[in-house]
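Thanks for the sequence, V.! I ran Glucokinase right away. Repeating your input here for the record:
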Amino acid sequence: MMRLGIDLGGTNTVVGLCTLDGVLMDKISAPTKTGDPDGLCAVMHDLCRDLCDKHNIPYSEIEQIGIGLPGTLVKATCTLTFGTNLGMSNVCFAHAFEPEFNCPVNIDNDANCAALGEFYGGAGRGTRNLLMVTLGTGVGGGIVLEGKLYTGREDIAGEIGHMVIVPNGAPCNCGRHGCLETYASATGLIRLAREAMEQCPDTCLHAMVQENGGKLTAKMVCDARDAGDALADRVFNDYCDYLACGLTNLINVFQPDAIVIGGGVAGYGEKLLMPLRERVHAQQFKIAPEGTPIVAATLGNDAGIIGAALL
Ligand SMILES: [Zn+2]
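Predicted structure:
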């Protein structure tokens, strides 16, 4: 038996063929049909068939099809209630793969699938309780408790990006102010840098932004810091303070075996993780001398596919 995991992104739909213990054998993709539920389901169905045909796997050998979705959903009815990036709402996937595939279809949001993928096959392997934090355009999260995804009363738990860390702070898309997401996402790092640059003409970031057509990225802040820029270093340290505050709050609530950090900002590697550990371990509740392990995600974009397959 095998499983299929689908990462339904706003741009691409990726289907992966996985073993029962979460080893990704192969994956194929096609552009996502946004705003067209029937077209979207047809593409997913075709990709599943093509992948099985390519490996000579009978459709009856597929034990489960899992889908990671960007949006709110009801797991029990396998329904996407609202998917902003997909341009559709109230789409039921329960029968989308029939008649060829008669196996159960399960859905969860993409951040939860990534957490489950890292839990089974990535940086979280061997843990029982795991938090995954994704630092991208926003701050995403997934909570694995006693080996199971925790999704809460309405299947929308794990929104750690919307924990307020600065009362009356920067406005957030969710309507609150001072959410972790507004400080600790890549977007937050860029905003912090922009604000600091306005007060400080003496930083190489001005020239870098000009060279880049006026655009500032999180990587440029990291590059400027690596080049010894004092302002970039100060901004980065502030960023670490905010992120460490959020992670410490989470550790004190959940006491996970590890926190896995993924997303674009995590590409800065140990230069991010070392100052984070220093701050978090100094603040968190703990009995043993060592603090909670904070490690980089290892599966990249495959985490969501593997996690979906294992739902
Ligand atoms: Zn928010």
